[in-house]
């Protein structure tokens, strides 16, 4: 028994057993928050314009393209509305730049700030033409009715048949070819799409989402705030 006790005592501790100090976690979180506030205030000092975007229909691929377009003349911040509000100033007496607290009050929901040297005229011109089609997500509204006609689905290999059937499609294998036994309505225009419908639409390459970024407000150091 004594030998067993010594064996267990001498065994290396699992990394999972490592204790993490909550004080260190809080300190790291506080430092990260303070750094973000500092970066936002530096950006506010550096750039003449601040644009507020609505990200409710965010698609990462589309947003990456937007950031790439403005990467040489702008800086983006998003994800922490309360921290961004603190950085800008929530009230007149605590605002970082005169009048900017009005923009701070508009930070609600999923949104982003773009600090930029690009004029509003050029920014709006870009976003009027920018959009990107993408696959619908659960909860999106179907923009059109999609019907799949009965017959062979030659675009798929035979190994896909169980997966299609699991999605609810009436399929079978006929001479090694996936066949839709009867007409199948994936969705009707105006439907609120569920996860299974979205999977089917993606498999058949139907894109119903149109990614756009809407500018909700612009703050200019000399012009003040304009809400759209």
TrEMBL record:
Residues 136-205 form the Large ribosomal subunit protein uL10-like insertion domain. It comes from the Eukaryota. The keyword Protease does not apply. Pfam families: Ribosomal_L10, RL10P_insert. InterPro entries: Mrt4, Ribosomal_uL10, Ribosomal_uL10-like_insert, Ribosomal_uL10-like_insert_sf, Ribosomal_uL10-like_sf, Ribosome_Assembly_uL10. Its main location: cytoplasm. It is found in: Cytoplasm; Nucleus, Nucleolus. GO terms for cellular component: cytoplasm; nucleolus; preribosome, large subunit precursor. GO terms for biological process: nuclear-transcribed mRNA catabolic process; ribosomal large subunit assembly; rRNA processing. Keywords: Cytoplasm, Nucleus, Ribosome biogenesis. The keyword Cytoplasm applies. GO terms for molecular function: RNA binding. Associates with the pre-60S ribosomal particle. Belongs to the universal ribosomal protein uL10 family. PANTHER family: MRNA TURNOVER PROTEIN 4 HOMOLOG, MRNA TURNOVER PROTEIN 4 MRTO4. Component of the ribosome assembly machinery. Nuclear paralog of the ribosomal protein P0, it binds pre-60S subunits at an early stage of assembly in the nucleolus, and is replaced by P0 in cytoplasmic pre-60S subunits and mature 80S ribosomes. This is Ribosome assembly factor mrt4. It comes from Strongyloides stercoralis.
